[in-house]
Design a protein that fits this description.
By secondary structure, this protein is mostly beta strands. The protein has 2 domains: 116 residues, Immunoglobulin-like; 102 residues, Sandwich (Immunoglobulin-like). The protein is 7% helix and 53% strand. A hairpin with a 4-residue loop joins strand 5 and strand 6.
């Protein structure tokens, strides 16, 4: 009899440990434009639901640049079915994380991992003068921000009509260094054959390191002597 009792004790303990906390995430892959993660956990003891268990849910979240981002933990108690639900927001940086569900201070715990994919485009703004002078160099700045990093910025000026015909559009491309906040200058020159009083339009398109693109609001300027 003693031998049989010794054999049963570790088997019972292993079965309980294997089914203490079950964690489910929805979704497991999050869009940065949404940034919301739902957590559903079930606490079991001896394969039966455990009601009114104090539970703390924490999120360890790091973006792809290696920067950690703080997410406030959630504390609550399990319901009659041994379940607890929580929702976390602000997961807007491309990266990965781990959700840990801890029962009490010394109780069992469970984990699940998630990923956040960058779907947020950069924000580009053209900062241009209201007028441009004939035969004069002019600098137009494009300000771009992105939470991950800026890859490229394209700049274009509508054709400047000169005497005797239509001029050519001016285009430029700058490969950014991955900065999250940059002001990029673009230079242009209005030819001395340009028509005074015509309107020139500036365009800009920015791309971030994840390939998301966004166009700036076009800005116009008038050609003066």
């Amino acid at each position: 009899m003693k031998l049989r009792l010794l054999a049963l004790v570790p088997l019972v303990g292993c079965a309980a440990d294997a089914n203490d906390v079950i964690v489910t995430l929805q979704p497991e892959v999050i869009s940065s434009q949404d940034g919301v993660l739902g957590v559903h956990a079930v606490v079991l003891g001896d394969n039966a639901p455990k009601e009114s268990q104090a539970v703390s849910i924490s999120v360890d979240y790091t973006d792809r640049n290696g920067t950690p981002h703080t997410v406030a933990p959630f504390d609550g108690k399990t319901d009659k079915s041994g379940a607890i639900d929580a929702s976390f927001t602000g997961l807007t940086w491309d990266g990965t994380g781990t959700v840990t569900v801890q029962v009490g201070t010394k109780g069992p715990s469970g984990e699940a991992t998630f990923a956040v994919l960058d779907r947020t485009p950069p924000v580009a703004t053209i900062m241009a003068p209201a007028t441009v002078r004939i035969n004069t160099d002019t600098t137009v700045n494009v300000h771009v921000t992105d939470e991950i990093g800026i890859s490229q910025v394209w700049f274009e000026v509508s054709a400047i009509q000169g005497q005797g015909g239509q001029g050519q559009r001016q285009r430029s491309t700058v490969v950014a260094s991955g900065s999250t906040d940059a002001t990029i200058p673009f230079d242009l020159q209005v030819p001395d054959t340009a028509t005074v009083g015509q309107t020139v339009t500036f365009y800009a398109l920015a791309e971030d390191l994840s390939g998301n693109q966004a166009a700036a609001m076009p800005v116009t300027a008038m050609v003066i002597q």
